[in-house]
């Protein structure tokens, strides 16, 4: 049993660590009170470097301490920020997804940036595409600035489509022929040519059966001329004839034609196992070294016309942070024209003047050159995001088990949607009654 | 007198830490369970027995989680004991390579639960998952393990059980080695068959150890959080939400710390009950200690 | 003979699910995404994707996260050994009022599921401004179940040891602390070794505590870090996740191969108490 020197060695090591001050207390909210903290959910080193460079520049010109960029994984982001807000130690500023920001604004947890942004002519507030502020503004108050307005678009595996002799969606789109009907036809044509375990269509990130249901459902319902709810009356419209027709169109692909990835299946476009899906620019990097040729097209249109749909994240300053004023300045700095230009290579901008330079900015990016204007720029300019109700977390929680019923083989879409609307109405009406 | 002082001095670091890290939180959790404390709200009001009332009569998920916990623990114990006992009995026969098998069986024991769970979640993917691909070689079409209620609970139970089979096998082996050779020899001389020796002589002698293993496994079965969190997140539709996981969900996802504390008190009472049973059982059956 | 073959077959069947995950983890760690779910499944990747390994370190500060785990586990080990030696010795050798009561109280922590006290601990540590630091990850095991287990083992060890040597030393004029340092600690080495192994593994493997108490990626420990290799939607990047898991499991497996006997005995001993 001579090996037992090991623990003593361990003790010695630990003691040395303690003595050399290899800090156990790596510090809570960033040490010196002069420093600001900014929370983000990316761990991408290139993005972090850019943010560090930009904030260092800001500290030089605007004073204040160092800005510490903290990454918190996306899965826990909202929880961790909420806990810090309630504990009275929020970060000074940070990223926030549109769905979460709406509720936070209503709870008074965000700083109103309105006066500072609008009174400064050099900031050019009206340079932003107006629809991009759908979720960030109420009246004259501005709760955040979208730094990423990322359009959803169609992406397809050219090899798989060519093998089946299917038409190219981008070409169809150019003549207005890229519709849900066309997608469904394409599915029936392509499916027989695919190996088992592969499918013609995958919803956005395969998420229609889970938490991401809305990112596929919203553009689908819009294409059929429906709406999830009417923001003016707070009336749920998921059970309207248009919405139900839209849902049935998808159900037909998944359960009748069996051309869409079924529930619980992992078949993934990026692994070459789905011919068509929807995505956003941030995912395109996954295609580096993909063993297939791919193309992009706008989202499919429908009886309700073409669809331009964006997902958003914004920069917000938190109420109760130690440097509310300086944090607001930093939001302004990062979302000003110059900041937006620099961030644009990672995050699609909503500033018209920056969009005008899109061809240059994305020249090196993964998006095909001929798609930059018709797919990216035009979707942002014409697009509008989902309008989130402030009770969004409850909407998600209430709807999840009901959607589970919708994705059963024999479900009746109309009945399920009636049930869903009945449960959602009181939540959606809260914003109307409250305002 | 001096000795008393020295003793208090020696135990004080641990006792003080114990006070702060175990005792005070234990009392606090009891207090919190009678309030509507919320992680996001600064003040909590006393609500009497409301949380317990809600738990028992209004929250269907509570009873479900108690039942799920029971199924999980029972399954874990059975799989664990059967597999480890089998391993121990076979390896005790001085087979060539027994040491190697034992070493391999012990690998999961030193691996972290998180790593074990992450790898198994990967293996148990629905279509295209490794386990199902292997099953399909034998023309068995496996379920979508982690996304269907019963397969999910079964999968989590088996994965948790496999992790500690090696450890329990070693404990059984130690017990086997301490069985006096004479007892076995005597039985053989009496003309007992191999099977009879195993059944009539060895297994009864292993009874006390088996009891110990059952108890450790039962108590260890509450350390299930990592598997649930990483493999199923409590789903599908609460099918794998055991009590320990419900506490985390209520406390840190829904922020309902008052209600979560009430659940924690229930879990504590259940463990206390188990500990009491253990003491009583050991007194009754395990004389050797 | 036939029995022998049958036993080997059964043995392989029983051990396969315990070993197979490691093989598959290693193989998936080196597969490109397209091969991850290939059918039929292959153990040996067709194209070896070494870049998975560099992705592990590019996507997260994984080296720093490993270091976090290492130094926290070392601190937990050292503190557990020191504290349990002191109190275990005292509970075994010294007589003082309340000895049995206090020891019984300590034992209550042994079976306590971590989830029970997690919420008040979180509230307390938040007040003390210790959330998002490594302090909770060190003090919780040292003073919680792991530390209590250690004390229990040390106490038992001294109880099984005749006190003559120490008594002689006392006659020689050594004080209590002198006895502990010069006599008791060397004597208790085998048990301290077991305690060190138990404490190190408990800390190295803990997942719930870092999940709850840490926010920032650069403070993460290994078990939480490996689960954070996901794409923007929270879906695992399987190959990178497997690579990270393999990298983090390797050192422990290696240590196990080197000190197999010791580790096996320590864990079995501690658990059968």
From TrEMBL, chain A:
SUPFAM superfamilies: Periplasmic binding protein-like II. Keywords: Signal. Gene3D superfamilies: Periplasmic binding protein-like II. PROSITE patterns: PROKAR_LIPOPROTEIN. InterPro entries: Bact_solute-bd_prot1, SBP. The keyword Lyase does not apply. CDD domains: PBP2_TMBP_like. Residues 1-21 form the signal peptide. The keyword Signal applies. Pfam families: SBP_bac_1. PANTHER family: ARABINOSE-BINDING PROTEIN-RELATED (PTHR43649), DIACETYLCHITOBIOSE BINDING PROTEIN DASA (PTHR43649:SF12). This is Carbohydrate ABC transporter substrate-binding protein, CUT1 family. It comes from Micromonospora avicenniae.
Automatic annotation (TrEMBL), chain B:
It is found in: Cell membrane. The keyword Transmembrane applies. It is a multi-pass membrane protein. InterPro entries: ABC_transporter_permease, MetI-like, MetI-like_sf. The keyword Transmembrane helix applies. The chain crosses the membrane at residues 7-32, 61-88, 100-123, 152-176, 201-222, 260-281. Signal peptide: none annotated. Belongs to the binding-protein-dependent transport system permease family. This is Carbohydrate ABC transporter membrane protein 1, CUT1 family.
TrEMBL record, chain C:
It is found in: Cell membrane. Keywords: Cell membrane, Membrane, Transmembrane, Transmembrane helix, Transport. Pfam families: BPD_transp_1 (PF00528). The chain crosses the membrane at residues 66-89, 101-122, 134-158, 179-204, 238-259. It is a multi-pass membrane protein. GO terms for cellular component: plasma membrane. The keyword Cell membrane applies. InterPro entries: MetI-like, MetI-like_sf. Its main location: membrane. SUPFAM superfamilies: MetI-like (SSF161098). One of its GO terms (biological process) is transmembrane transport. Belongs to the binding-protein-dependent transport system permease family. This is Carbohydrate ABC transporter membrane protein 2, CUT1 family. It comes from Micromonospora avicenniae. The lineage of its organism: Bacteria, Bacillati, Actinomycetota, Actinomycetes, Micromonosporales.
